[in-house]
Amino acid sequence: MEKHIVVLPGDGIGPEVTKATKGVLETVAAQFGHSFTFETHDIGGSAIDNHGTPLPEDTVAACKKADGILLGAVGGPKWDNLPGHMRPEKGLLGIRKQLGLFANLRPVKGFDSLLHASPLKPEVVGGSDLLIVRELTGGLYFGEPRERRNNGQDVVDTLAYSRHEMERIVEQAFQSAQVRRNKLTSVDKANVLESSRMWREVVEEKKSDYPEVEVEHMLVDAAAMKLVTNPGYFDVIVTENMFGDILSDEASVLTGSLGMLPSASIRQDGLGLYEPVHGSAPDIAGEDKANPLATILSAAMMLRYSFNMNVEADEIESAVHAVLNEKYHTADLKIEGGTQVSGSELAKKVSEHM
Ligand code: ATP
Ligand code: MG
């Protein structure tokens, strides 16, 4: 298959980890007889430096024509004191919004070789393998009005959703559950919120379209507790924007390292933006120390969700497992008796394994 990939390296370690990942994608293409073409564009701080805006028109136009988008990270101290509309982060929020990427997918897996890195007990984290599907463009973070009233003595935020916005994210979650272990936990606060009651209705309505998926409803407070007491209980979790924001950060401690967590922001036709959960790590940028595995695993998600290449995605993921089992790691991971290598060397090990 021919696929066109737009790469947005961004700032800090973004260029290193995307470059390393491109190498792995080229290995996949060669191995499976695909043709991947790459086109690189600026976003974030580097775009502010080169074009005077965190999200240049060129970048948006290229992303609209892409089959998949791979992003490094944006931001850094150099741009911290710019006015709001000129912040590097605006580039990322802007591209997600302009492309209508409403579903945020964050898989979290307890890697056997890294169990000791989690602050939770190995026997609790071991075997956990879950996916959080978070609604990304509605709810409390976007609702209007949002304002101070009565001389600053009162304040209002608005939690608004349309049925359509709920339906499309719930459908995405059912489809994700189908290609995993057929178990869906819908998380809400239906004992107090009207929006959550409508959310439950939508999940109940959609259920009959996916008879093989086992569905349950869970209140967000209970889900927050279960995530750290029994994470192995979950397969796919679907929830609205704010609950998903909080739960996905909570779940990220299971792996014990920021350098291992991939993510995707996708829409119904399959276009998606894939990026590591970690930031631009300015403290180690340019030293080839950054762990590229979160970005490599994000590329595997691109193959799975945007290109429908499941075998190829499996291949990358098992190569990552194999390299860790051989105890190769970057400085952020502590593996007893392991061999510490640079970021680019670790990516090469992944390619070799494939
Ligand atoms: P942001 O606000 O962009 O999310 P942040 O302040 O939350 O950024 P990161 O940039 O993610 O933080 O970095 C947090 C810490 O984790 C830093 O010490 C950084 O060096 C480290 N870190 C982040 N990503 C990686 C990586 N891929 N490899 C190694 N260390 C990393
Ligand atoms: Mg952060």
Automatic annotation (TrEMBL):
Pathway(s) served: Amino-acid biosynthesis; L-leucine biosynthesis; L-leucine from 3-methyl-2-oxobutanoate: step 3/4
Binding site for substrate: R96, R106, R134, D221
Alphabetized GO MF terms: 3-isopropylmalate dehydrogenase activity; magnesium ion binding; NAD binding
Cofactor note: Binds 1 Mg(2+) or Mn(2+) ion per subunit.
Cofactor(s) of this protein: Mn(2+); Mg(2+)
Keywords: Amino-acid biosynthesis, Branched-chain amino acid biosynthesis, Cytoplasm, Leucine biosynthesis, Magnesium, Manganese, Metal-binding, NAD, Oxidoreductase
Catalysed reactions, semicolon-separated: (2R,3S)-3-isopropylmalate + NAD(+) = 4-methyl-2-oxopentanoate + CO2 + NADH
Record function comment: Catalyzes the oxidation of 3-carboxy-2-hydroxy-4-methylpentanoate (3-isopropylmalate) to 3-carboxy-4-methyl-2-oxopentanoate. The product decarboxylates to 4-methyl-2 oxopentanoate.
Domain Isopropylmalate dehydrogenase-like: 4-350
GO BP, one annotated term: L-leucine biosynthetic process
Organism per entry: Halobacillus andaensis
Gene3D superfamilies in the cross-refs: Isopropylmalate Dehydrogenase (3.40.718.10)
Protein known as: 3-isopropylmalate dehydrogenase
EC number: 1.1.1.85
